[in-house]
Design brief:
single chain; 292 residues; alpha/beta; six-stranded mixed beta sheet; four-stranded parallel beta sheet; 11 helices; globular
Length: 292
Amino acid sequence: MYQIFVDTDMDITPIIAKKYGFKLISMPYSMKEDELVFPYEDFDDFEYKSFYDTLRKGVIPKTSALSPEKYMEYFEPTLKEGKDIFYIHFSKAMSGTFNSMKLAFEELSKKYPERKLYTLDTKAITICSYNIICTIGDMLLENPNMSIEEIINWGEKEIDKFAVYFFADSLKFFARSGRVSNFTASMGGFLGIRPLLNMNSEGKMLSIGKVKGRHAAINALINYVTSLQDDILSYRVVIGHTDSFELANELKNLLIEKFSDKLNVEIIVVNPTAGSHCGPDTIGVSFHAIHR
């Protein structure tokens, strides 16, 4: 017996978690000093327009790793039920929060020595992690008896075949989090340059190019999908945005025009914790690829 845990940095909402029978770990952010906000615990629905409008006005939120105590709060009820924990999570390379997870389980193991913690790193965040975990969820709906080992074996073969490419409207949020230099951020904003980024097979965010203007960036995303897609009609395509639905819908329509009206495309809003790093008007696409 095991319970799958996922986290909000994967763009998983309580509705999606309930659909698949997952338990949801909330990754916090703060708009003010020492005032942590836990998505879907401190609010029921993500009011993304007001959140991203606040960022447009100059507020740059901070994000924080979970404490070991918080992980213990999430895990202990499941251990009490006599179930092992299987945590499928966002990229370990992007956060120190998993050190807290390890410490928490080491402490809990003293009380529940027969229970085990299994993990699977999606080596991604937001829509790419969402794409992976929803694929796993669909597999479990078809075959509820899948073992942890079967899912991990699937992940070892397939996770690197889920790609994500995206661009940001402004680089200042990435600069705050150390993703790009402040000089690059200021020049990008001045010249209207959009950086193109992806997540590599190590679970790290990389800058892979730059274009001038939003529509050129949209076309670049389409080119990446076209050149790297692998049997695209058989898999979910996920478009994520940070309060830029019109551009996201434009990308959706262009992809359908390019491939087929049978393309399974979802448009979702990027969660506030990850959105704190990329800022408003970021657009990305995740799809099944020959490689990342």
